Hints:
- The protein is built from five helices and two strands, in the order αααββαα.
- The chain is mainly alpha-helical.
Amino acid sequence: VEVPEANDxxxxxxxxxxxxxxxIQNELEQADACKSLPMALLLFxxxxxxxxxxxxxxxxxxxxxxxxxxIRDNANxxxxxxIGSKAIxxxxxxxxxxxxxRMGLVPLVLGPAQQYxxxxxxxxxxxxxxxLAPVS
Length: 136
């Protein structure tokens, strides 16, 4: 190791050895960290492929979209001449919500097997489940 002279004009430009060694050690640690990157990417890609193949998100999204579409477009209420003139977006009050629930959603969920009235009156619009006495 060359020892600088005391009257060397470039003495203030020299870097102490401990800083150089620390810098090189840091660079070696970063190089080792980069060597593990391919394995981490491989594990990430394997996880992503398994998640895509196993969870089947495409069919779940399709089912969710179909249900939302069915409820939004087919669960109508406020019937007039056998045609529902309001949908879920037109619910503005508690009474509208219960009317939509009773006249729109329940018949949609239970299906056309049961007969439903198209009146907004309570007696005419009340569902009559098999085995239950009618509401009086």
